[in-house]
Amino acid sequence: MSDIASISGIDIANVAKVSGVSKTSMAKFGGMSRASSSPSVITDNLFLWFGPDDVTGSTANDKNGGSVGAVMTNGASVVTTLRSAGSFYTDGVNDRILAAYSTSQLPSTTTWPASIEAWLYPSVGGKNLNVISFNDDASGTDWLRLMLDKRNSNEITYHQFYADGGGYYQWVRRDVDFPTVNGSDWVYMSATFELVNDATLITAYINGVAVGTATTSFTGSRNVPTWANQTTGFNLGINYLTRVYRGNRIHGYYGQAHTGDVRLYTDKLTAAEILNNYNVEKTSYGH
Predict the structure, then answer these.
(1) How far is CA 214 from CA 137, 173, 257, in A?
(2) Three-state DSSP class for 281?
(3) What is the rounded average pLDDT of the residues 62-74?
(4) The whole model's pTM is what?
(5) Quick one: pLDDT at residue 165?
(6) Is 246 a residue whose pLDDT tops 70?
């Protein structure tokens, strides 16, 4: 609407609605474009957003306005050694960053789609795995994950979905060196999950670009989000995995790594929206 100075002498900036249509919802009016605002992170269907630039004491606040915080314990902290806006840091020994949701605080959706995003920095030290995990609280056996894996001297990215504790999982795996942009080692990982032909389709993105897909080999009721139909809670762990099945035993995992902004959507972001989010934040991560 930059082409419209006024309507009947009324400044368009002062018009809240035109014929019952919200001004903010009109991308075009009579074929004339509305001046675009500055790009921002997509917030439609955004469930949580934690970033190292919004912390009170030892708790990272939900930048989306949610009531649950990500609590940093045992020395987990925000440091500014890698970027001026800070990064979450855990030492791989017993530090943990955990946002724990009760049953009354779970997302209301019980079916796909969903999307997850995070800025990750290749880990160092003895625990060479930088991982973001969204999992159920009862057993930890239903989860979504983004990972930079440097174990065994390899560099591997994983966009993962695991369900039902019986080995039902799928991922997009890339055995390639972690990409650098403008000399920055930060990697922006995104994944979307949707139901296609009664199976879960994962689409993986790195630095705003689609890099591959994978479809689960199982069908039916296992193809639902990790928070669906939960009788217990739901966790987001930043370099901290809770109650993880490995064979017949359950244990925790502590990663030594730096991590930036983390988001969960209860919808499928489009390729354009993922690229938008990357472009909005990339400068602060050195890209």
Answers:
(1) 26, 9, 27
(2) helix
(3) 97
(4) 0.84
(5) 59
(6) no
